[in-house]
Write a structure and sequence with these properties.
Number of domains: 1
Largest sheet: 5 strands, antiparallel
Strand content: over 45%
Number of helices: 1
CATH topology: Methylamine Dehydrogenase, Chain H
CATH superfamily: YVTN repeat-like/Quinoprotein amine dehydrogenase
CATH class: Mainly Beta
Shape: globular
């Protein structure tokens, strides 16, 4: 099938259920429902349900918000979504167990962590080709790219380390020992520090990216998976505790805890940093947290099994 024919075929899968969104949108990977739900965060309403087979989990958006990329671990595929039109425009076959996903600030390539192997797939979304495989540690999970696009970071769960990769050469340039079973990794806005959630040691490793070393370890709640950054605060999803642990990134001191829904995983701040959105995998909700008061101000219903592992908030015009 030609690229045009393929795009037309997959575009027909979109199901729009409401009018245009206002303000930020959330692209929520509903794993059990085999779909991506698009939520208008101004109203809490689902404005589109986009079928994505293969138990979608990982998600990221291009810097300009034009494309969303979604991984399907069981479908061995990367789905490409036109974010403004809320429709699938391509589905790129992959290999292994694609999980974490990140995209270069320029919009290409897309990096996909192969959970079943010890490498990162480098994917050109235009040619649909895997252009490189980057050797990293065992079971790479969360991925993050520095704001300047120079470095890719991979949380290698079964190696208890963070891989630092030069994106110009696609070579690993550093291995940073972190806590036990690292899963999510988040880079700050300046590209100076990375925060790694260690699910087995119940802590967060704070990494100086330039020095490629851990400079601090912050104890958090039980089974931390992902870190969202809002202002000077880090919000950590503690899956087994059904809450967020919040600490000050300057002092590393705890500033509180926030009870959210059941089994929280994905978390990201709003474009203005005033709210933090938390996908509750078992609760089928998206918790909305005031980043200043640490209060849950709303709970939005989602589809079945929301994970949103990655960057899932899109700022709309």
């Amino acid at each position: 099938m030609s690229p045009l024919g393929r795009a037309a075929a997959v575009a027909a899968l979109i199901v729009v259920v409401a009018g245009p969104a206002r303000g930020d949108e959330a692209f929520v990977t509903n794993q059990n429902g085999d779909e991506v739900g698009v939520l208008d965060l101004a109203t809490g309403k689902t404005v589109a349900r986009i079928p994505v087979s293969g138990k979608p989990a990982g998600v990221t958006l291009t810097r300009d918000g034009s494309r969303a990329y979604v991984t399907s671990p069981e479908g061995k595929a990367l789905t490409v979504i036109d974010a403004a039109a809320r429709k699938v425009v391509d589905r790129i076959p992959l290999e292994g167990g694609p999980l974490g996903v990140a995209v270069h600030p320029t919009g290409r390539p897309v990096y996909v962590a192969d959970w079943y192997a010890a490498h990162i797939l480098v994917v050109d979304p235009e040619t649909r080709a895997i252009t490189a495989r980057i050797d990293v540690g065992k079971s790479p999970s969360g991925l993050a790219v520095t704001p300047d696009g120079a470095l890719l970071l991979s949380a290698d769960r079964d190696s208890d380390e963070l891989s630092v990769i030069d994106t110009a050469t696609n070579q690993r340039v550093a291995r940073v020992p972190v806590g036990e079973r690292p899963f999510g990794v988040t880079v700050d806005a300046k590209g100076e520090r990375a925060y790694v959630a260690n699910v087995a040691s119940n802590d967060v490793s704070v990494v100086d990216i330039a020095a490629s070393k851990v400079v601090a370890t912050v104890k958090v709640g039980e089974r931390p998976y992902v870190i969202a950054l809002a202002g000077d605060r880090a919000f950590v999803t503690d899956q087994y505790a059904n809450r967020l642990s919040v600490f000050d990134v300057r002092t590393l001191a705890s500033v509180g805890e926030v009870d959210v829904g059941e089994y929280p995983e994905g978390a990201q701040a709003s474009s203005d940093g005033k709210r933090v959105y938390v996908a509750n995998w078992f609760g089928n909700t998206l918790s909305v947290v005031d980043a200043e008061t640490l209060k849950v101000i709303e709970e939005f219903e989602t589809g079945d099994g929301p994970r949103s592992f990655g960057l899932f908030i899109r700022a709309t015009p």
